[in-house]
Amino acid sequence: xxxxxxxxxxxxxxxxxxxxxxxxxxxxxxxxxxxxxxxxxxxxxxxxxxxxxxxxxxxxxxxxxxxxxxxxxxxxxxxxxxxxxxxxxxxxxxxxxxxxxxxxxxxxxxxxxxxxxxxxxxxxxxxxxxxxxxxxxxxxxxxxxxxxxxxxxxxxxxxxxxxxxxxxxxxxxxx
Length: 175
Ligand code: IMP
Ligand code: MG
Hints:
Helices cover 22% and strands 35% of the residues. With 175 residues, it is α/β, with parallel strands linked by helices. The strands form 2 sheets. The protein has a 6-stranded mixed sheet with strand order 4-3-2-5-6-7, with helices on both faces. Strands 1-9-8 form a 3-stranded antiparallel sheet. The longest helix has 18 residues, at 11-28. The radius of gyration is 16 Å and the shape is globular. The chain starts with a strand and ends with a strand. It binds inosinic acid and magnesium ion. Residues 42, 74, 98-106, 150-152, 156 line the site of inosinic acid (IMP).
């Protein structure tokens, strides 16, 4: 089956929205320093673009998690593959994610990070599929709410491919 990618959000739409979120975060955290926590690999493209548009002091850290259970459905119980380098104690932390789907991964991750004693903990996601939510997650900054379709680009992959697309697309399968 041949695959093709249909554009859902253009590069300009994504960039403009990231600019607006960067400005919003800069206002909300005026006078403070934000510590961005990127969830690899999907969140990396979004985090870099976002960080460039935040005007208060920024520090960065990265973590990588994998979910136990089947490949397609996340169980929510996650394993830390690469942990953060720095402590979160007393920091104003913003977790930067590519997409919130069922919410299982994020709800588990946020509880775990909250136990590390940050001054504050917020969640910023580029994409949100609210129709798919199984576990309640409080999202502080959302780029776009999208319909229940499998998307790629801007860090999101299909079988590890398409992360490098500078826009968000939907994978379509032709006969
Ligand atoms: P959940 O919110 O725990 O269900 O899992 C979210 C994770 O599933 C994301 O961090 C992505 O890695 C992956 N994911 C969910 N929906 C998509 C999609 O449409 N395209 C690519 N990856 C997705
Ligand atoms: Mg992810």
